[in-house]
Design goal:
mainly alpha; Serine Threonine Protein Phosphatase 5, Tetratricopeptide repeat; 9 helices; globular
Length: 191
């Protein structure tokens, strides 16, 4: 196993070059098919890079890859043995972070495909187990709940996102107010 491709994958993500991130991430997965951190990273990042139509053949292929990588990470991560040099807490935290990314990626794949009801449990799992919850996941969870007429859950997710400092704060606040209004004028769907 070469640590170089995994490191380059993260470096290109930090640099904002998602094309190179994908290229090196896929090389890493070819060499180390059980590299759950790279699988989860690709699973989460690829659907976030999509702009435009999701019916475009390249987008369809990208979402299929993201779904596959996320599912592989979700399947493999719980089976990993704990490295000797890690405490139980550090190992559990690392596994949860990997699983949160993978569930986030799978949730976003479902959102992009318009399968919001399927996205909700994935995104709920992502925010529940993430040691450092990502406001994007709360935003996506809010949008998925709002589109399935689960207005109270949407408001709760948007409020958590709005409470986190960052670029989504204002958007989430507005979405929370909108979901609250919809909840008073439309029938909420049963869970």
């Amino acid at each position: 196993k070469s640590p170089v491709y995994g490191a380059l994958t993260y470096a290109y993500l930090q640099a904002g070059n998602t094309q190179k991130m994908q290229e090196y991430g896929e090389k890493e997965i070819t060499l180390s098919p059980n590299d759950v951190s790279t699988l989860a990273l690709l699973g989460q990042t690829l659907p976030r890079t999509l702009h435009g139509s999701v019916s475009d053949p390249a987008a369809v292929q990208l979402l299929a890859k993201a779904e596959q990588y996320s599912k592989q990470a979700i399947e493999i991560t719980p089976t990993l043995p704990k490295p000797e040099n890690l405490t139980d807490e550090a190992f559990a935290s690392a596994k949860n972070q990997t699983l949160a990314m993978a569930h986030s990626g799978l949730g976003l794949v479902f959102v992009r495909r318009g399968k919001n009801a399927e996205a909700i449990p994935e995104l709920e799992q992502a925010v529940k187990i993430d040691p450092n919850p990502d406001p994007v996941n709360y935003y996506l969870l809010g949008m998925a709940n709002k589109s399935t007429s689960h207005f109270d859950d949407a408001v709760a997710a948007f409020n958590k996102c709005a409470a986190m400092t960052g670029p989504l704060q204002g958007t989430c606040k507005t979405q929370a107010e909108d979901a609250k209004k919809l909840g008073t004028t439309q029938l909420s769907a049963p869970k």
